[in-house]
Amino acid sequence: MRIAIVGAGPAGLYLAILTKKRFPETQITVYERNRPDDTFGFGVVFSDATLDIFERYDPESYARITEEFAYWDDIAIHVKGEVHRIGGNGFCGCARSTLLTILQDRARGLGVEMVFQTEADPEEFDDHDLVVVADGINSAYRQRHAEHFGTTVDLRPNRFAWMGSTKPLDAFTFLFRETEWGPFIAHAYQYERGRSTWVFETDPDTFARAGLGLCSEAESAARMKAIFADVLGEHEILTNRSIWRQFPMIRNARWVRGNRVLLGDAKATAHFSIGSGTKLAMEDAIALYEALVAEAEVPSALTRFERGRREEVEKIQHAADVSLVWFEHVARYLDFEPVQFAFGAMTRAKAITYDNLRLRAPDFVDRMDRVFAEGVRAAGFDVSLDTPAAPMFQPFRLREMVLPNRVAMAPMCLYSAQEGVPGDFHLVHYGARAIGGPGLMFTEMTCVSRDARITPGCTGLWNDAQEAAWTRIVDFVHANAATKFCLQLGHAGRKGATKLMWEGMDRPLPEGGWEVMSASPLPYFPDSTVPREMTRTDMEAVVADFVAATERAERAGFDMLELHCAHGYLLASFLSPLTNHRTDAYGGTVQNRLRFPLDVFSAMRAAWPAHKPMSVRVSATDWAEGGLTPEESVAIASAFRDAGVDLVDVSTGQTVRASRPLYGRMFQTPFAERIRNEAGTATMCVGNITTPDQINTILAAGRADIVALGRPHLADPGFTLRAAAWYGAGDIHCPPQYAPGKDQIFRNAVRDRADLEDLKMRGRPKTRAELRLPAVPEAS
């Protein structure tokens, strides 16, 4: 084979090394536009896990790399005059120039030909079997064929500059500084003796106010040294093409074109805040090498590479996306207590959570628990500060309603009612889950009129039979549980007259349907019933239906009321520009689109007792082009807050069929976080949250005030009780009939948790930083 590699960065060189070592007869030539000793940037970072991979694939280069690396175990977060150190992380750094020299030497020793100071065009190698395009973030070949590759470039708003310093550091260090212009961030780590990398970052408004766009490289360095003088001291700031720029998040729908394949930054980028750029590139090289070993033909190998590697790349990019967004909006969190700020920084990308932080840094999590409890005590609760409960088991107040914990059972349609009347299935469903211990439980969307239903199986609250059935369920919950019970009221709008979920979700009924209406006459599916555009008379009738249901809800004894303005149902259809094409006072601007939903809410609020809370469920994004913007979602939440909403239940999507959600763990939580910290209102988050650990992580980081789970409660009515046993929250309510079971699970949990934590600690490999520590002499 003949292989041409365009670009002598870590990805191209490592691929050349692995391939030449395995297939010594292969002719491999690496082309690089720069000189071999040209140096751009300062240090690179790898985790211990990544070094383990390097050791397995090429022990020779691994040995040289580890001789040169600086090791550290801690992450240090400097904010508001405090420093929080969290150990057990296992990082190491090396000068980029050193890494390239090691890889060049190794490749040369294996017989790889390298040609420097040559602008090689990947189009020129038609006589080669494989052409690897590893020419970096600004790949000319990728740009030339952007349509084929399906390239998207998301140019992020923050400005950053790579610099260096002579300042020694003993931890991966994040520094946050508030200045007269706004916040500045430094990401810093040592990569060799007497040298450390410093990546400075700030938001575009702060960048403009500080005048950095007009500064020379030297002037920018001087400004950064002044801002971070308390840590840098007399140590110099070093520059090397240290220009301020924006990070491009690059994705490609396809990585292969004929026998040309993109590799490294040419293919995909990951933000520097998770330190994975070089890791991503070198692991790309490993994956392509493995594909070449596994397949006899190049086309098959390239197909295998793309199919096998894409999921891991997208996972890393997703983590990087979440991380970079946290840094872009760091101003939201600067009012937090320093320990909570540090906890949020550590858990920003979801890889690190409350429980694994407790294993690595128990004192840090103890401080976090105490600070959280102090906030609860400041809200008027007599909670322990000496042995604080985990965040999920701290109480929360909405008006005069007090929740015993912050776990909620999310609203989930059961489609099991007869003419809107909830039956025995509903009694058992809600009764069992209330006994299981969540602080708050929501009904499914309950419809305010017969024609407001989604399906024939939806519950309602428009007649006496329904009111009596709901009263029976509410009375059972109040008699046997401490759980507060919230009724969610809604109107299906254009998504009405559809089949039961298991018969075809959102698909129109073939017969027996009813007339539907919406903000605009737009069907959900092309073959769905075309809704009637609502008139003012229709609006008045709907408001009256919601008020009548509100009055029935009070008579039934519900503790709380929620208005459903999400998921493309009637009120959501007014809020989204994708479903509201009106030209009257109810369409156009977000203020106009809010008008009717606010009319409904205000009428309900007036009919609902003042001491009882109300919430609103919103879709914070439509996940579709032209839909709600983040700024509009904050404006919507703020308007409901001003109208008397006590809690915003933040969901997303389901507005239009063209939506493309970015699913993942806790994928909707960032929307709840933004609304909470920008609109200044309590929020509840929901969406692929499955464990108590995730709940505690969200709450401790200040991302939401209540956490709702749906599917986990379907599978396990005792979810919250089991979590209480795990975290030792012994005061959770349990009816006397079940007390022996509670006692047993609490006893077992103490042993089970100790065993699991011991197993995890024993199984955790020592980081390289720990292994390099001098041995402690045994006591004689």
Automatic annotation (TrEMBL):
GO-annotated molecular function: FAD binding; FMN binding; NADP binding; NADPH dehydrogenase activity
Protein name: Salicylyl-CoA 5-hydroxylase
Domain of life according to the entry: Bacteria
Domain NADH:flavin oxidoreductase/NADH oxidase N-terminal stretches: 392-724
Domain spans labelled FAD-binding: 3-315
